[in-house]
Amino acid sequence: MSSPRAPIGIFDSGAGGLTVLKAVARRMPAEDLIYFGDTANLPYGSKSPRAVRRASAAVARFLAGKGIKALVVACNTSSAVALSDIRRAVAPIPVLGVIEPGARAAAKVACGGPVGVVATSATVASGAYPRAVKMRAPRARVISVACPLFVPLVEEGLWSGPLARGAAARYLPRFKRERVKTLILGCTHYPLLKSVIGRFLDRGTRLIDSGEETALELEALLIRRGLRRAARARGRRRFYVSDDPERFSLLARRFLGRGVGRAVLHACE
Ligand code: DGL
User: Fold this and answer.
1) Residue 149 belongs to a domain
2) Which atom from ligand 1 is nearest to the alpha carbon of 77?
3) Which residues are known catalytic residues?
4) Could you report the per-residue pLDDT of 94-130, keeping only the tens digit for each?
5) How do residues 3-16 score in pLDDT, each as one tens digit?
6) Is residue 23 within 8 Å of 212, Cβ to Cβ?
7) Which of 12, 83, 109, 263 could connect to 75 by a Cys-Cys bridge, CB 3.0–4.6 Å?
8) How far, in Å, CA of 119 to CA of 31, rounded?
9) Domain that holds residue 75
10) What is the spatial distance between Cα 187 and Cα 119, in angstroms, rounded to a whole number?
11) Contact criterion met (CB below 8 Å) for 113 and 178
12) Nearest Cα to 206, choosing from 178, 184, 176?
C-alpha cells in the first residue's frame, strides 16, 4: 500500500522529460521526485515500438523498485506505444502518460476546430494523439506532422536563430494552410521551441504543452487516491541515467535553467 510520503517516479528517454518534471515540481513542490533518463537508448522517437516497449518497461520496473506511489511517463513516444506494457510491468502503481492529458486539453480549447500535432516519427506513426483527441471530439480533424529535426536542435541549444526557424518553416506550413488554431506540442523537447513555433503560426494559435497538463492530472490523481503529500519544505529530487551522466547534467542545465547535481548511473536491462 502506497503512502503520501512515497516519491513520484518520472521517466523519459533522456533529459527532455525534465520539462515535465519542472511542471510537476512547480505544481507540487513538496513531493519527492525520482527522475530516470534512459540516455543509453535515446532517441526513442526513431525506434521501433518493440524496442521502445522493452526499454520503457525496464525503466518502469527500476523506478517501481524505488517505492514510488505513481509513475509519470514524460516521454510522448513511450506514452504513445508502451503505456500498457508499462502499466503491466508496475501494477498496481498508477501510471500516467502525457498523451491523454494533452489531447484532452486540446479537444477542449479547439471547440470542434482542427487540431494539429507535432511529435516524433514514432509518436506520429502510432496515431495515439489523433485517437485520444477523437475520443473527446469525434468530429475533430487532427493533422499530425513528424518533426525529427526539432529534438537535435533543442539538444544542441538551438532554440532560436536561423536553423530553428528553418526547421519550423519546413514542418509547419500545413498547419497554416489548414487554419489550425490549436497545436499539441507532442514531444518533451518542443516546449523549448515555443517561441519559434508560435511566431511561425498564425497569431492566436494555442500551443498545448502536454507536460503542464500532465502535472495538473497527476495532482488530481494523487488527491483522489489520498496520496498527495501535505505541504512542507521542498521535496527531494533524485536523478538517474542509463548512460553519460555528464552530458545529462549539461542538458539538464539547458532544460531547467539550473544544475541538477550529478545524476547516478544505472543500467536498466
Ligand atoms: N522524449 C521523446 C518524446 O517525447 C523525444 C526524444 C526521443 O526521441 O527520445 O517523444
Assistant:
1) yes
2) 10
3) 75, 187
4) 999 999 999 999 999 999 899 999 999 999 999 999 9
5) 999 999 999 999 99
6) yes
7) 12
8) 29
9) 8-98+212-267
10) 5
11) no
12) 184
